[in-house]
Structures are given as structure tokens and as C-alpha cells.
Amino acid sequence: MNCFLSAVVLSGLVCAQASSLQVAASPERPGATFPAKTQDIPVNVALLPNLPVLPQGKATILGGTINGLDRVREELILRTFGGGRIKVLFDGRTRIYLNDMNAGHRRDLRDGQRVHLDTMLDGTKIFAKNIYVLTSTPTGESYGQVVSYTPSTNELQFTDSLSSAAIKLRLAPSTRVRQQEHLIAPTALRPGSLVSVTFETEGDGRAVAREILLLAEPGDVFQFAGRVTHLDLRAGVMVVENLLDHKSFEINLTSSLALPGNDFHEGSNVTVSIAFEGTCYVARIVTVNSPSAK
User: Fold this and answer.
1) Are residues 77 and 87 in contact, defined by beta-carbon separation less than 8 angstroms?
2) Is 112 helix (H, G, I), strand (E, B) or coil?
3) pLDDT tens-digit profile of 30-59?
4) Is the pTM of this model over 0.90?
5) Is domain 38-133 classified as CATH 3.90.550.10?
6) Per-residue pLDDT tens for 101-138?
7) Which CATH number does 221-290 carry?
């Protein structure tokens, strides 16, 4: 049984953008030939296919520099501020912003621009819902698992949970490292720990952490109440949505776990005790709080 952590802590904006039909020569499709007069070609708009709906799920913010732009395939290569290259898709549903506020267009995107993206998984691919072209100091957010922290260089390396990219950040004297509401030493960032990071880039392009939140360490045990949104007893996995913050946790059910009776099903309100084991959450105790109709 594969253990996969799917707790996602970042939220995003759901925006839609209407696309227009361009028949005349377009700078977005270099080398393509189109009729010069659009008025000579009648178009029945009702026959045009609708764009697919936006991918569902939580969003992750990625920051970096556009390091390759293909307007025909509608994809870009993002060189992240923390290092690494990620392919991101975009299309007519993607909203472009200039200076964080002004609406832009896909033709405004250029190689070398500093951007941050609201991204979601569309199957196995990363899709940009919103692209913000930055003119000031770029900032970003990421969530992932610590690979290493080197005190001599004040460098943190972790793996982003969405892109699986290895990200390196430098900790400055002003960097806040905390666990819940308490400040902690950076040396507490042990390999395997889950972290949420906000960062910005300096003039030389290096990423500097502004704040690091230590979410969980291997061996930590948590207890919370929530609603079962998915249950697969054969695969030994369930997903529970925390009632307090509405974050979802994929939890493994071991064969030795004593499960509740008939009241335990999708839609049940439960209290769970779970242990973080480095690669997944494992249920220790599951209790049904009150019966709920199937």
C-alpha cells in the first residue's frame, strides 16, 4: 500500500476568463497564416465548443521566472525562485494580471518575466488559473517536506508537494521559524518534517525565506474531529475533512486498527487520532461521534 500525503494547506482563487475568436494574423501563433478580413467570414458563435471546466481542488502558489513560452501549445516553463524548472499549462480560462491588479492578456507574457502563479493539478499536469506578472519584489508560497537544513550556510532544501521540485531557500536573520504560535530554532527543521514557507527573491535571484511554519514532524500524533469524505476499506484509506479549518487529510487504515461498526461510512462525523510517519498519516483511533444517514 502506497502512502501518499494529500493534506493541502494553501487556498486559491477560482477565476474564469472568456476567450475571443481571432481569425486575422495573431502574434500568439507565429508563422501561421490567416485570412486578413474577419468580416468576410461569418462565424456562428453558438457552434464554438465551450472551454472545459476548471480543475477542482486546492491551489498552490508557485513563484519564479518564465524560462520558455509556447503560445501554440499554451504552456510555459517556470524556473522557480528556489531552483528547478516546472512545466505549467494555461489557456483561455487563465486570468492574467499586471501589477497584481490590472487585467492583462496572454500576449503580455514574455520570457524572462518574474511571475507567480495560482496553480492546480489537472490530472497529472499543472494548470495555471491565475498568472501575476510581477514588477516589484517577487514573493511566493510553497508547501512540502524538508530534505535538509545546513546551519553553516543557513540553507533549507525541501520538496514541493505539488511539483515534486527540489527547492532551496536561504534563511536570513529576519526569517521567522515557528511551530504553531511559538518561535523555534531553524535546527528543528529535521528531514521528513512538513513545512509551509513564504519567501521572496533578492536582486541576484536567490530565494530568501520570510517565514517557515513547521506543520508536523515524523512521529507527531494529532487528534481532530471531522467528516469522512472518502472511505475505501479494501485499499485501507480514508479522507477526513477537519471541521475547524476544512483541511482534508488522507489517512491510512492498518489491518490491526479496530474500526467502528455500521455507523462508520462516508459522511460519518468522526474523531480521529493519527500519527505522521514521514510519508503518510496513519490512524491510531477512529471514533464515530454521532450516527449520520448514508
Assistant:
1) yes
2) coil
3) 333 333 333 444 444 444 455 555 556 556
4) no
5) no
6) 667 888 888 887 878 788 888 778 899 988 888 755 55
7) 2.40.50.320
